[in-house]
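User:
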Amino acid sequence: MAAPDLFWKNGRFGQTSRPDNWWLSPLVVFLGWVRFWCTPNWAAWQNAHYTYGPYISPFYSPELWGDSPHAWFGPKPSWYPSFLPFSPALLILWIPGLFRFTC
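Assistant: Predicted structure:
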C-alpha cells in the first residue's frame, strides 16, 4: 500500500485539493446573514412608517419607548444619550440579532 502524499506541492495560496465548489454553501449563508442585518438596520434607522393602524412592524415590537400609541413606557427616556438618534427599534433589534449570530 502506498503512503499518502501529505504535502500540497505546487499549490497556490488558498487552493484546496477539493474539486467541488465547497465555498458556495457558506457564501449563501453569509449573504443571507448580511441581508438579515441590512434590512432590520435600514428599518430601525429610518424611524418612520413602522405602524399601520393597530399594527406595528416586527422590528419595532415591542415598542418600549416612543411617540406612537404602542409604546409601553411612554416617550423617549431622559437617560437616552442626546447625541444618538432615537429609534425604538434600536432598543429591541439586538435580541434577534444575537440569536441569529449564535445559530
